[in-house]
Specification:
The chain is an alpha+beta fold and 358 residues long. It is built from 11 helices and 17 strands. The structure holds adenosine monophosphate.
């Protein structure tokens, strides 16, 4: 194992959104500097970082200069072009590593990886044509969900098919993207586990949170989630299994469906995750510090939860409620510094302490 990164070192972060911003704040608390690489203008993370490169992921000169200026590179989103990673990896360690990105960038590869670990997933089939999709529906029945294999987020790139006659329209909506068809999982509720693995191979998971989505976007995460003790430990064991199989370094989010027959893995995200924001008020070491510790080769926090928390995303115009929320002395407000409150845009979140773990 390489030496732990010393305070004063610089962490490079690919992506300058709110996750990069909160990683940068956590890193600065540990004495690190952050250098953000982001193609878009005015990234929220740059407001709290030491340096910013504004350039596309295809700009090899900018990538090389970025790599030369940092001690380790991490990322806040999974869809980084492969060529950019190749170039960075030659110059500087990239954590989490390549395998996690390869697996999570493509829903088909991800499902096959999860099945290979013996974990339950929705039934699925790759579909490259409308005829293949119809064959897949004949096997899974309806409802089913057609999803693009790559670049889906917040419910984008997917269409629900409620009956066979709807299928043609669903295909027309996603085509020509390579897709997978998933059978519908009859779940009672959705949870996620945020887990971390250090450079020494140690794993620490946070308590599972219960997630409610609205219009494909996460609305709330509540801890504790409604789970039996057996389901709770299953959820954590599933996350640990994935972390170890990927020889992962950093924080990873695992989204799961709770069903009568057990837990079904929906998807994994090789990064800090919106459903882990509750840890900022619920744990001594939150998911952002945990990630920085992991990629810096520091020991991990243990993940213990010391409060019951409800995290609510502030989406679009929700930010207008800030004065009211601020009046509640048990709610911690996290705003992302975004200028314009467009519909569907995550502007911030609130962590409300609802009690103490029983
Ligand atoms: P995803 O982008 O895959 O996380 O899907 C977004 C949301 O769609 C999930 O949080 C679920 O609420 C729902 N969903 C996705 N896949 C399935 C499935 N196979 N069965 C039932 N619901 C699903």
């Amino acid at each position: 194992m390489t030496e732990p990164l010393a305070p004063g070192a610089t962490i490079g972060i690919l992506g300058g959104g709110q996750l990069g911003r909160m990683l940068s704040v956590a890193a600065s608390r540990l004495g690190f500097k952050c250098h953000i690489y982001e193609p878009g203008a005015a990234p929220p993370a740059a407001q709290v970082a030491h340096a910013l490169t504004t350039a596309p992921y295809e700009d090899t000169a900018a990538l090389s200069a970025f790599a030369a200026s940092v001690d380790v590179v991490t990322y806040e989103f999974e869809n980084i072009p492969t060529a950019a990673l190749d170039l960075l990896e030659e110059a500087v360690p990239v954590r989490p590593g390549r395998e996690a990105l390869r697996v999570s960038q493509d829903r088909l590869t991800e499902k096959e990886f999860l099945q290979g670990l013996g974990l339950a997933t929705a039934p699925f089939a790759p579909v490259a044509s409308e005829a293949e999709m119809q064959q897949a529906i004949a096997r899974t029945g309806t409802p089913a969900i057609l999803k693009t294999r790559r670049f889906g987020y917040d419910g984008k790139g997917q269409v629900r098919i409620d009956s066979t006659p709807d299928a043609g329209a669903a295909w027309a909506q996603l085509e020509p993207a390579p897709a997978i068809l998933e059978g519908f999982v009859a779940f009672s509720h959705e949870i996620s586990v945020i887990g971390a693995r250090g450079m020494d191979g140690r794993v620490a998971c946070f308590d599972p949170g219960e997630n409610v989505h609205e219009g494909g976007i996460l609305r709330t995460t509540t801890v504790p989630a409604r789970l039996s003790p057996a389901q709770r430990s299953d959820a954590v064991l599933i996350a640990a299994r994935i972390l170890n199989a990927l020889e992962y370094v950093g924080v990873l989010g695992v989204e799961l469906f709770v069903t009568d027959d057990g837990l079904v893995v929906n998807e994994i995200a090789p990064r800090v995750h919106n459903s882990g924001h509750w840890t900022q008020q619920g744990c001594t070491i939150d998911q952002f510090e945990q990630h920085i510790r992991a990629i810096a080769g520091w020991p991990l926090g243990d993940g213990t939860r010391h409060a019951d928390v409800e995290m609510t995303n502030l989406i679009g115009d929700d930010v207008a409620r800030i004065p009211d929320i601020a009046a509640d002395g048990r709610s911690a407000i996290h705003l992302y510094g975004k200028a314009e409150a467009r519909p569907g845009r995550k502007m911030g979140h609130v962590n409300r302490i609802t009690g103490k773990p029983g």
